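Support reply, case 0932

Customer input (verbatim):
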Amino acid sequence: MPKWRWILSQLNEKIWFRTTLFCAIGIFTALFAPLVKDYIPENYAHNIGAQAVDSILQIIATSMLTVTVFSLNTMVTTYATISASATPRATELLLKDSTAQNALSTFIGAFLYSLVGIVALRIDVYGQSGRLVLFVVTLGVIFVIIAVLIRWVNRLARLGRVGETINMVEQAAKKAIKQRIDQPCLGGTLLENDIAFDKHYAITHPTIGFIQHIDMAQLSQLADKHNLELFIKTPPGCFNDSHAPILYSTMALSSDEEQLIRKAFSINDCRSFDQDPRYGLIVLSEIASRALSPAMNDPGTAIDVIDTALRLLVPWIKPHHEEEEDVLFPRIHVPAVQTEDLFKDLFMPIARDGAHILEVGIRLQKAYASLASMGNNTCKNMAKVHSALSQKRALSALTLQEEKEIIKKYAL
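Our regenerated output:
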């Protein structure tokens, strides 16, 4: 994805952007009536009853302000709930929730629409024909408000629950995993581990933070122009310390060209679910670890996370993941996400924090068995390694010999 499209998608996920857009639509809609009033006979307004638009707009203005304040208060409370019961990293997904954004944007936009309409009526901008247009548009606005309000009430019934938070994280991780399955190297060529960079030219980035996005098309254009190869060392999700190279080039570049390369890397203080399948699994493991803490003592949530993780990993380990993929940027070499890293990110924290709980240990061993039966040799080896490690932790933490024997029975 080009950087401008990625920035646009990031803007679309911001509450302020969608709210501003809806507010602009609301103001434009309120000012639309005077533009068409000359085409409507004035006696129509009296026959239909457009005089009632004044009181209707006042009701909308009062109610929408109240509903907006209530919705904002609910979202703030939900942020605190998710941070306490799940993980603070999941609140980012709530900020991007389209239903919540549409609800707030619609309520604020309707409030501004009614406010502008009331002011315009007071200064007699519309006339009788304009009142009729405003009346018809207001009926449409009411219909939109009712539809959005019904969806918002249904969303509020689930918002903030741990199960719903797990579902949001699953959907975000699923999207990133699917993108990596389709393009394991972001459309580039696989970076081999045995390449020596002694004779290559290193390029660093002064910004300290996590790589969120890489504009592969921009890098490819530069590589094609100068007939060179670029080897990315910090794919999305990696931390850039400003000292280690973000990539290597097969030839020296000018300072302007190096700056173009740096602009292709989007770096921020925190990780993003986009282009980073590992981050979603890390957040899931954090939710499970929080549930297994003495303060929560909720092994059922940890088991739910394990089941969710299994749904995410099965498409990843399927044989089609190893099939030859179309290389869009042959001069850009990118390291692939390793199955071993996904196992470590997800299962090690759960196995550590749930070692003393038999039910969690059994579910982990069943998950390992499922993955071993469906994956390739690498996946089978990883499943056996983590099965043995989980068994070792469980045998050390469990007190009853009978429970230890059960764990041994399920281990690979």
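We compared this against your earlier run and they match. Two observations from our side: The CA atoms of residues 188 and 274 lie 17 Å apart. The radius of gyration is 28 Å. Please reopen the case if you see a mismatch on your end.
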